[in-house]
Amino acid sequence: MKNRVLKAALLAGLAVSATLGFAGTALADGEKYVLIHHSPDSETFWNTVKNGASLAAKEVGATVTFRNPPTGDLADMVRIIQQTTAEKPDGIIVTIPDVETVGGAIEDAVAKGIPVVTMNTGTAEESKKLGAMLHVGQPEFDAGKGAGERAKAAGIKSFLCVNSLFPNVAGQQRCEGFAAGLGVPLGDQMIDSGTDATEIANRVKAYLSNHQDTGAVLTLGPMTALPTIKALKDTGLAGTIFFATFDLTPEISQAIKDGVINFAIDQQPFLQGYLPVITLTNDLRYGVLQANSVLSGPGFVTKDNLALVESLAGKYR
Amino acid sequence: MSTTIGADERVKHTSTLRRALVRPELGAMGGTVAVFAFFLILAGNTQMFALDGIMNWSTVSAQFVVLAVGVSLLMITGEFDLSLGSMVGFSGMVFGLLAVYVGLPAWAAIGVTVLACGLIGAINGLLVIRTGLPSFIVTLAFMFILRGLTIWSAITFNKQPVVSGIADISAGDPVAWLFGGKALGALFAWLGEQGLIATYTRGTRLGQPIVDGIPMLIIWAIVMVIVGQWVLTRTRFGNWIYAAGGDPQAARYIGVPVARVKVAMFIVAALCATLLGISQAVEFGSAASDRGLMKEFEAIICVVIGGALLTGGYGSVIGAALGAVIFGVVQQGLFFTNVESSLFRVFLGSILLAAVIANTYIRRAITGER
C-alpha cells in the first residue's frame, strides 16, 4: 500500500517535471543567455538586476537564466561559470567579484567562443583583459570618492563605513574611495558589520558611542542601511549625522524623504541587467557593438530628484 | 544481633563542593568571568560598561540566548536542528507576508506563524523518529527547504526578497509589542529626568534618556532561561529529557516516552527560532529572506561552550545561556575596543576554542570520565 502511494507520487512528480520541461523549450525561441552573479540569495539589489534583464529579454524575445552561489562562495561561482560554459549558451553575463578567482573561468568561456559581457563588480580594464565584450558597472572607488567629495563639501571630517561585504574587494574600495573623497586616511573607520540585522544595528551604536566625534555614516547597501537607519533613530542621531548609502530600496527612498539619509549612490542595477542583454542581442543579430564599456553609476539620489526614482524603486531603480 | 542501619549503598554521598564542581555550566561560568575580565581591562574606560553599552551587548547576547535555550534542550535529548537559522528567516517571512500581503492584523499573523512553525518543528521531529535517520541529515534537508521556501515565497508574493511595511501594521497592536517593543520605558524616562542615568547631549532626542527601556528580547531570554532550567532540573519531564538523550533504550525500558520527548523538543527549538524571527521582523519593520544565516551553528557553539555534550544526555540551560552571553560579549566587545575589526573572527574563534577545551578538561578531571 505504502509502495503504491510512493509510486504514484513519483509518477506525478515525473509528469510535472515533464510538463515544465516542455513549457521551458516552448518558450525559448530566441537566444539563451545566462546571468551569473556572486551574491548570496536575496539582496533586493539583485532583484532589480533581474527585473532589468528579464524586461530586456522579453523585449527582444530571448531568455535569460539567473545563477548564483547560494552562500556567496566564489569557488562555487567558478564551478557555475564552468558548468554554464559547458552548456554553451548564446551568451554569458557575469560579475567579476575577484579577478584572481573567477578570471580563469571567464577566460575559458571566451576561449570557447561564447560572447561574454561583464557587469556590476569588476572594472572595465579587468573585463577587457579577460576578453569580454564590455563591462556595465560602477567603478567602486570612484563612486565612493564622489560620495566622499559631497560629504566633504558638507564639512564632514570623519566617518564610519559599515561594511557587510568584507570578503569582497568592492566593499573595501567603496570605503577607501569615500575616505579619499574626504581627504582622510581610512584607518579604523571601517567595521566588519556581519549580516545579522540586530548585530549590525548594535555594532553601529557601539562604534558611534565610542567615537562620539564621527561626522558621517556610509553603508554599502540595503542590508546595512536599514539597521543603520534604526540605530540612528534609536540614538537620536537621525537627521543630525551625515548619512550616505549605496543602492536604493523603498525604505531608503523614505529615509531620504525624511531627511535621515542625505543621498543614495545609485549604480542603476536596472541598467546593469538590461544593457548586457541588449548588447549581446544586437551583436549576435546585427553585428553591432558599442566601442566602450558603460559606466552605469554613480548616480546620486537626493531629496531633489527623488520623486521619479521613488515611484520605481525596487522594480526598475 | 542487630546491626545498625548503615548508609544505603545505593546512595553515594558527595561533598557540596564536588557537587558544585560537576555541574555542566562550571566551565561556562569560568569562561564568562574570564571574558568579562578581559574586556574590563581592554575596554573598561569605554562606553562598553555604561548603561547603553550594557544594553547593546545584552541585546545581541539575548538573540543567542533565545536560540540556545531551545537548542540546549534539544541537544540534551541527543538531537540537532540545523534548520533553525533558516527557520528564523522563514518565520519572519511568513509573518511578514501574512501581515503585509494577506492583510491579517499583526496578532493574528503572529498566531498563525507560531502554529505553522511549531508544526514544521513537529514534522522535523517525526521524520527523525519515523525514519531513524540522524537528525543532522533530516534537519540539514530542512535547512535548504525552508531557506528556499522563504526566498521563493517572498519573490512570488511580494516581488522582492524583503517584505517591508511591518512597522505600520505592528504599531499599536496588542501582541506585537511583546516581540519588538521595550519594557519599563516609564521607569527609564523617570530615571533620566532625575539625572540618575545618562541623557542625550546632541541630536533630535536631546534630554531624553539614552536607554529608554529594556528590549523585550532580553526579557524573553531571561524568562526562557528560568523556565527552561526549572523544567530541566526540577520536573519529571526534565529527567525524561536527560534520559532520552543519555540512553534512549534504557529510558524506554523504564517507561519514558522517548519519541514524544524528542518531538516536543524539536517543536520547542523551532518555536525559539520563530520567536527570534518575529522579534527581528517587528523590531526592524521588515522581513528579509536572508535573516538568520549561520544562526544554527552559532546556537550550537553557545550550547557547547555551555558544557553540553554533542552526543546528548549532558548539559544545562544556564550553561547554554552563559555560552550565549560569552558569544555576544566577545562579538560586540571588540567594537568598543580599538582592535582592528577584521580580527574579531580570530578572537572569537580563539576564545571559543579555549572555552570548550577548558570545559572538557574540567569535566573530565572532575567526573573521571574518559
Task: Explain what you see.
The complex is a heterodimer of chains A (317) and B (370). Chain A has 317 residues and is of the alpha/beta class. Chain A folds into two domains: 32-138 and 268-297, Rossmann fold (3-Layer(aba) Sandwich); 140-266, Rossmann fold (3-Layer(aba) Sandwich), CATH 3.40.50. Helix content of chain A is 52%, strand content 15%. Chain A contains twelve helices and twelve strands. In chain A, strands 2-1-3-4-5-11 form a six-stranded parallel beta sheet, with helices on both faces. A six-stranded mixed beta sheet of chain A has the order 7-6-8-9-10-12, with helices on both faces. In chain A, β1 (32-36), α2 (44-60) and β2 (63-67) form a beta-alpha-beta unit. In chain A, α2 runs parallel beside α11 and α6 (140-153) runs parallel beside α7 (169-182). The longest helix of chain A has 26 residues, at 2-27. The radius of gyration of chain A is 22 Å and the shape is elongated. The relative contact order of chain A is 0.13. Chain B has 370 residues and is mostly helical. Chain B has one domain (27-35, 47-171, 218-335, 342-361): ABC transporter involved in vitamin B12 uptake, BtuC, CATH 1.10.3470. In chain B, 69% of the residues lie in helices and 3% in strands. Chain B is built from 16 helices and four strands. Chain B has a two-stranded antiparallel ribbon. Chain B is globular and about 70 Å long. The model of chain B has no long low-confidence stretch (mean pLDDT 86). The interface between A and B is large, with 43 and 50 residues. Chain B: It is a multi-pass membrane protein. Chain B: This is Xylose transport system permease protein XylH. Chain B: One of its GO terms (molecular function) is transmembrane transporter activity.
